[in-house]
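Progress narrative, Year 2. Work on DUF3155 domain-containing protein from Atelocyanobacterium thalassa advanced from sequence curation to structure prediction during this period.
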Amino acid sequence: MARKRKRKSRRRQEGRKILELVPQYNIESGEDKPVTAARKYIHGIGIQAPALLVVRRNEHTTDRYFWAEKGLFGAQYVEENHFLFPSLKEFQPQVQKMSMKTSIMG
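Result:
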């Protein structure tokens, strides 16, 4: 029996494309938990927002975090809700606004 393909959210795909344009840092978590390693790296280096941190837990697992002005967020959350982050506005593609003509019925 064929498996049903999971529907990919258009909003999340847009967010993923935007996050690809943000500066990215790859780090190892070492003895720390991934979030702790990301926070230590951010404060140690002095990374400015926005930034994407890819933290490698072990040889098979990586966690992605987004560093914004408001703090550290999971990258998947940011992909789905990219419009909530003002620092990502500059990375969003400009959409041409179409002029709408309205007709008044009399």
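The longest helix spans residues 34-45. The first strand starts at residue 24 and ends at 28.
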